[in-house]
Amino acid sequence: MKKDINKIDPSCRIDAESLSRFKQQLPDVAESIIDSCYDKESFTHIDYEPIPSEGYVVDIINKLREVLFPGYFTREKIDPGNLKYYMGQAVSVLFDMLSIQIAHSIRHDCFRYDLPCTECDEQGQKMALSLLGSIPSIRKTLATDVRAVYEGDPAAKSHDEIIFSYPGIFAMTVFRVAHKLFELQVPLLPRIMTEHAHSLTGIDIHPGADIGKSFVIDHGTGVVVGETTVIGKNVRIYQGVTLGALSLPKDAGEQLRGKKRHPTIEDDVIVYSGATILGGDTVIGARSVIGGNVWITKSVPPDTKVIMETPKLVYR
Predict the structure, then answer these.
(1) Would you say 196 and 174 are in contact if contact means Cβ atoms under 8 Å apart?
(2) Host domain of residue 217
(3) What is the DSSP letter of 301?
(4) Which among 96, 92, 95 has a CA at the least distance from the CA of 84?
């Protein structure tokens, strides 16, 4: 039975008229938003010079993973016959993407802070080339991270499983690249990269942290590693661990910016879930074990085990 198109439900016509009345107010709303963009108390980037794009940064991370772990994250099959072609193309694409975003980052700082000209485009190309030149070294370090996870996790069935699915390895892949950019003093970009990894994994690692080889983040959710943290080799930390700074006065930001505020974790240390270790003078000595849910603001000697007293359970 065909529906008579001439018989329109009156409520539909009322809804359409109501929508029209609301949409007529949108130009005034838009003008109000535009006016607020010129409020000096708010934050905007309305300028003819571009700012780094988070979308492009995500594309860079995805392309970097293809180069750091060839054959894992590409749609195409990579074999010995096409490796040279694929890698040459990928490196060329990465160079263009990186140099543009690095140049945008430098130029943004130049304009915002009225800095002298630093030849942004040339600097972007130079730094992109430096990062790409460090890829073999970063790959070797990431391989130690993957092996350390496999050796310490009976649930891991293969190195492939770890590379594909472990959030700690994703976070460390992004961190190790971002850290190189941080060392090159590229503004903005390293932090955008690690915050993207943070948003996906719950693992918050500042790109300024110094982390040695064979580093393992087990499970990972809620892990925080501050900017001036120093971590040695063969360190394992579990979910919910904070390597942070002591609480600071409201006006202390400028005074302490760039100074050591976060702890040092020496070689072969294990830090269990929920532990909080704070302060730039705090050193956890080599081969120590930090138990779950402890709160530490003073240094711990090497070969020390720090645990909470066994709590008393009450059954009712």
Answers:
(1) yes
(2) 209-248+256-308
(3) -
(4) 92
